[in-house]
Amino acid sequence: MKKVLMSLAIAVICTLGLSAQEMSPNALGLKLGGSTGNISGVDVEFSYQKALSSNNRLELDLGFSSGDGYNGFSLSGYYQWVWNIQGGFNWYAAPGASVGYLNFKNADDYVSVGVAGQVGIEYRFSEIPLQLTLDYNPYIGFTNSEGYSGSFCLGIRYMF
């Protein structure tokens, strides 16, 4: 089911990207990889970005995970600063926060709350409204003795 949903979402994003001509400061897409630390092994995050100015934006990520003996979700928010490197390449850094919930089959469930960060690089295509990203998300959890963790994510977003 997850593979069907992910394939459908990627197909819709790619189709929209090929038909649109104008760039916009909003973006919607998927991030694949680990979460912001509070759920180990997140398979997919749905990601939304809203530009606030020419070099600042908000990003919200809703992540879903399932594995051997657990499933859960997380919600992370970031305030990003964006700097141009050259052409369509930018890098960004952000402070943020994250909450999550994990349901274990053979143990107690837990809620995760912590501060998060983000540093990454992106490429914005000039001819189609697509953005590719690679970022690292450090996380410090305050519940369940989580401590520090971090993860890498690959992303693709449709800019509208």
Q: Which short descriptors sum up this protein?
A:
single chain; 160 residues; mainly beta; eight-stranded antiparallel β-barrel; 1 helix; 11% helix
Description:
The structure is a single chain. The chain is mainly beta. The chain contains one helix and eight strands. It has one helix at 2-19; strands at 26-33, 44-51, 56-67, 70-86, 89-104, 110-124, 130-141, 147-159. The protein starts with a helix and ends with a strand. Mean pLDDT is 83; it is low at 7-23.
- SSE arrangement, N to C: HEEEEEEEE
Would you identify the regions where 5 or more consecutive residues have pLDDT less than 50?
7-23
Shape: elongated
Number of E-state strands: 8
Structural class: mainly beta
Helix content: 10-25%
Q: How large, in whole angstroms, is the Cα Rg?
A: 16 Å
Outline the biggest β-sheet: 8 strands, antiparallel, barrel
What's the tally of helices? Answer: 1
> Per DSSP, what share of the residues sits in E-state strands of 2 or more residues?
over 45%
Strand order of the largest sheet: 1-2-3-4-5-6-7-8
Q: Roughly what is the average pLDDT, rounded to an integer?
A: 83
In whole angstroms, how far apart are the ends? 28 Å
Describe, in short, the structure shown.
The chain has one helix at residues 2-19, and strands at 26-33, 44-51, 56-67, 70-86, 89-104, 110-124, 130-141, 147-159. The protein has 160 residues and is mainly β.
Question: Can you lay out the helices and strands and say which pair or pack?
Answer:
Layout: H1 2-19, E1 26-33, E2 44-51, E3 56-67, E4 70-86, E5 89-104, E6 110-124, E7 130-141, E8 147-159
Antiparallel strand pairs: 1-2, 1-8, 2-3, 3-4, 4-5, 5-6, 6-7, 7-8
